[in-house]
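Long-time lurker, first post. I've been practising inverse folding by hand and with some scripts of my own, and I keep getting stuck on stretches where the structure tokens seem ambiguous. Below is the full token string for one chain I'm working on. Before anyone asks, I'm not after the true native sequence, just a reasonable design that respects the backbone. If someone could post their per-position residues I'd love to compare against what I wrote down in my notebook.
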């Protein structure tokens, strides 16, 4: 539950980009950066306070987004997706090849961290990390809701709907997409940092395309119309993943793909659209 809650932050980041008309197939890049930032924060700088480590994770992913964002945000549609994927796979290759610095395919261990100076016993550590993740999730969800309701959030949606008209009205499309990209990177970096703390291990697979694909599929399942919609998508995706792999071990991937395809075709706006229809019907 802790891992799923943390990963939902990355899915929120993907959905946030989708609201701006940007489909990222490389969001695992920032998840891996956040996770490895926690591991290096412990190993190189001797930081063992969880909140400081998470701050390092967010800062590292945000700085990377600031560095590569001006290039990536120039592109749209399949070009944006492929370039974001390319950056993620470059990081995957680096993490895999530089064994002495990154641990290679084995990854790096992350030891137990303190939370506000509190050293939790081994049995209580999982509970402490759960409530830490829940608190971070609440703050991130509130920040995302505030962004959605802000002028910047409406402008990002306008970029998706009619980019040319927005330019004619005097708004900067590049600025709004860049802003959304940085916000999504920060959320995903936080997700990676929480993953590293909860699991106690990081590996290059966090940057692999399959991880980015999971984030994207969960966002498609939930939808983008509400900040909570990607969370619903994450819960459904992880539940299907666990259930099908346990009860249909030989064909679970095919079954998962078929179910997801049916949901996406029948509900193009995601599962959250069911709630919106129900609410609209009762309001009428």
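-- Answer (accepted) --
I ran through it position by position. Result:
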């Amino acid at each position: 539950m802790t891992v799923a809650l943390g990963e939902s932050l990355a899915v929120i980041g993907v959905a946030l980009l989708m609201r701006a008309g940007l489909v990222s197939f490389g969001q695992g890049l920032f998840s891996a950066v956040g996770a490895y930032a926690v591991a290096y924060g412990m190993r190189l700088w001797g930081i063992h306070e969880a909140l400081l480590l998470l701050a390092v994770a967010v800062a590292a992913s945000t700085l990377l987004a600031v560095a590569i964002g001006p290039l990536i945000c120039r592109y749209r549609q399949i070009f944006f997706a492929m370039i974001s994927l390319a950056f993620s796979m470059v990081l995957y290759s680096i993490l895999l090849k530089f064994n002495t610095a990154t641990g290679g395919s084995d990854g790096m261990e992350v030891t137990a961290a303190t939370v506000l100076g509190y050293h939790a016993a081994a049995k209580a550590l999982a509970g402490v990390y759960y409530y830490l993740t829940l608190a971070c999730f609440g703050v991130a969800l509130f920040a995302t809701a505030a962004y959605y309701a802000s002028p910047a959030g409406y402008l990002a949606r306008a970029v998706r709907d009619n980019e040319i008209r927005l330019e004619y009205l005097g708004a900067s499309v590049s600025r709004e997409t860049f802003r959304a990209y940085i916000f999504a990177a920060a959320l995903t970096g936080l997700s990676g940092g929480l993953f590293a703390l909860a699991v106690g291990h990081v590996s290059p697979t966090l940057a692999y395309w399959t991880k980015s694909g999971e984030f994207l599929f969960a966002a498609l399942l939930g939808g983008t119309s509400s900040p909570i919609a990607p969370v619903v998508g994450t819960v459904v995706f992880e539940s299907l993943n666990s259930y099908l792999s346990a009860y249909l071990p030989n064909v679970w991937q095919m079954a998962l793909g078929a179910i997801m395809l049916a949901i996406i075709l029948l509900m193009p706006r995601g599962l959250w659209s069911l709630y919106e229809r129900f609410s609209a019907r009762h309001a009428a």
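A couple of notes from the structure itself: Strands lie at 108-109, 201-202. The longest helix spans residues 122-149. Happy to go over any region you disagree with.
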